[in-house]
């Protein structure tokens, strides 16, 4: 709460009433911006602080400071934060406010190097003591957040940054040409018509508005000199040689088309993130190809071998999802449409972008800021990004990452750990419902050197430990696995157990998590 209060007070310089928007509109806008900078609940916390002292001050700070001044066009939020940092550094007496705005700048995508260079430039005008204090404040923020200070390294793993490029307007998807030096970028441009940018793989701009006149374009896929674009109610087809829109196809069944993928034989699939469907393009018509209650909001899609890989956003289309609402990854067989969950990606996050790498996938998850490596047996957090990591692309060991809310594209060389897929998983996930257990653990054998057992999908337990037969039944009560069993002639009785799993192990803690724990390997 202290940081939220500090960051808003430094924005308030004065107050005047304008006729452009109502006070209510400005206040709602201010709340949205404040919570983007300081987190959910920041506005409510500010209101509580001033409620008994000066409730009007909250109105001025949120409605005027954020809703009007901070929300003005002409400068993006990251630039505004760098300017505020410069001002506070020059004042040399506002360390707490300075640290709060450094945190906000980092959250918006500013790098430690950019903030450091700001301080160095200020030394010429405000003097070295004030600039040095600014550097020290930056160091404290980085230390407190355990942030990797090098501008060349991502904070979680050795993703080596090659370049970054600004100038986009909500870039959602990027795709690399397999035959030429081009990257194509969709710009959602939510408040106006969207468009496609074309840049080089070295981070040079060819044309920000290469193809215009679209709505809010999202997912992209290339096939035989045609660029397929998921864009709301329409699937666009663009001639990449001529840079011209060839056709736009829609269907009354469509709600909001998102990602696109094309098979080796030219079959086009499109995810309808809002409608919960997968469409296929057949004879220039969009037809529902797949739908299941298990997948609420299919987002990123990819084809590998005989399967369509689907990244589900989650239970709701919201950036405020709780972990038990997060989406999972699935495989759908292209021939018989059988559905299989990828257990290592169960409730991984608000899933979006999806790309293949050696022996697995990269997928954007968490709250759309985390990058994970996933395969059938592994889950590994590879990197953390500013909020808005969207539909990524990988080519020749290079990751291209659109950062939606920072209006930029970043390029990284992938770490050796990913390219060789030598990764271990030490992330324990508690199973809290019977449905989760059936998906993640039922019918799998777990054990150690003394034996192994299985809890089947129909509620039976059997196994062998120490040469003796284990039998019993299982069920679920509240958020505990319940077991009634015996081994040989010895009655083990009834117990309620906390179950936690990784992709390779299971941990059981008896007596509702208060008793003895034992770890078994997956067999």
What's the gist of this structure?
This protein is α+β, with helices and mostly antiparallel strands. It is 24% helix and 38% strand. Helix 1 packs across helix 6.
Q: pLDDT below 50 for ≥5 consecutive residues: which ranges?
A: 1-6, 8-20, 146-157, 420-426
Name the average pLDDT: 85
Estimate the strand proportion: 35-45%
Strand order of the largest sheet: 26-27-28-29-30-31-32-33
Approximate shape = globular
Number of helices: 11
Helix content: 10-25%
CATH topology of the largest domain: Neuraminidase
Structural class: alpha+beta
CATH architecture of the largest domain: 6 Propeller
For the record, what CATH class of the largest domain applies?
A: Mainly Beta
Overview of the molecule:
- Residues 55-140 form the Carboxymuconolactone decarboxylase-like domain.
- This is Carboxymuconolactone decarboxylase family protein.
- Pfam families: CMD.
- InterPro entries: 4CMD/NDH-1_regulator (IPR052512), 6-blade_b-propeller_TolB-like (IPR011042), AhpD-like (IPR029032), CMD-like (IPR003779).
- The protein is of the alpha+beta class and 523 residues long.
- It folds into 3 domains: 2-145, AhpD-like; 165-419, TolB, C-terminal domain (Neuraminidase); 429-522, Beta Barrel (Lipocalin), CATH 2.40.128.
- The chain is built from 11 helices and 33 strands.
- It has an 8-stranded antiparallel barrel with strand order 26-27-28-29-30-31-32-33. A 4-stranded antiparallel beta sheet has the order 1-24-23-22, with no helix packed on it.
């Amino acid at each position: 709460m202290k940081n939220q209060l500090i960051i808003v007070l430094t924005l308030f310089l004065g107050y005047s009433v304008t006729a452009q928007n109502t006070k209510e509109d400005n206040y709602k806008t201010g709340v949205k911006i404040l919570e983007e900078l300081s987190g959910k609940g920041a506005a409510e916390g500010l209101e509580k602080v001033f409620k008994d002292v000066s409730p009007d001050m909250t109105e001025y700070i949120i409605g005027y400071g954020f809703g009007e001044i901070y929300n003005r066009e002409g400068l993006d939020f990251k630039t505004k934060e760098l300017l505020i940092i410069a001002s506070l550094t020059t004042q040399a007496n506002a360390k707490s406010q300075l640290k709060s705005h450094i945190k906000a700048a980092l959250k918006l995508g500013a790098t430690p190097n950019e903030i450091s260079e700001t301080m160095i430039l200020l030394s010429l005008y405000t003097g070295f003591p004030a600039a040095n204090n600014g550097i020290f404040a930056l160091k404290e923020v980085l230390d407190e957040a355990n942030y990797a200070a090098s501008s060349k390294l991502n904070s979680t793993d050795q993703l080596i940054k090659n370049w970054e490029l600004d100038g986009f307007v909500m870039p959602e998807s990027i795709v690399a040409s397999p035959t030429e030096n081009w990257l194509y970028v969709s710009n959602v441009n939510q408040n106006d018509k969207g468009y496609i940018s074309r840049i080089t793989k070295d981070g040079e701009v060819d044309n920000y508005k290469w193809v215009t006149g679209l709505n809010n374009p999202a997912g992209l896929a290339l096939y035989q000199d045609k660029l397929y674009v998921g864009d709301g109610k329409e699937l666009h087809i663009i001639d990449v040689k001529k840079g011209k829109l060839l056709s736009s196809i829609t269907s009354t069944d469509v709600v909001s088309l998102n990602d696109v993928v094309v098979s080796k034989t030219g079959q086009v699939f499109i995810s309808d993130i809002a409608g919960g469907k997968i469409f296929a393009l057949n004879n220039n018509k969009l037809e529902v190809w797949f739908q299941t209650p298990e997948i609420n909001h299919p987002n990123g899609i990819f084809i590998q071998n005989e399967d369509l890989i689907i990244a589900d956003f989650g239970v709701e289309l919201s950036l405020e999802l709780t972990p038990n609402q997060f989406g999972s990854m699935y495989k759908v067989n292209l021939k018989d449409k059988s559905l299989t969950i990828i257990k290592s990606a169960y409730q991984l996050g608000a899933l979006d972008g999806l790309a293949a790498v050696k022996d697995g996938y990269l997928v954007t998850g968490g709250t759309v800021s985390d990058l994970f490596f996933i395969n059938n047996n592994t889950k590994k957090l590879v990197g953390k990004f500013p909020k808005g990591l969207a539909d990524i692309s990988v080519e020749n060991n290079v990751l291209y990452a659109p950062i939606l809310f920072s209006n930029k594209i970043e390029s990284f060389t992938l770490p050796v750990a990913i390219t060789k897929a030598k990764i271990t998983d030490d992330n324990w996930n508690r199973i809290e419902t019977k449905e989760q257990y059936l998906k993640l653990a039922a019918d799998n054998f777990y054990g150690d050197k003394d034996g192994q057992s299985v809890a089947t999908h129909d509620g039976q337990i059997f196994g062998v430990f120490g040469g003796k037969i284990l039998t019993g039944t299982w069920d679920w009560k509240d958020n505990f696995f319940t077991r009634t069993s015996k081994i040989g002639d010895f009655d083990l009785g009834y117990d309620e157990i906390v179950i936690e799993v990784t992709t390779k192990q299971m941990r059981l803690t008896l007596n509702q998590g208060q008793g003895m724990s034992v770890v078994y390997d997956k067999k």
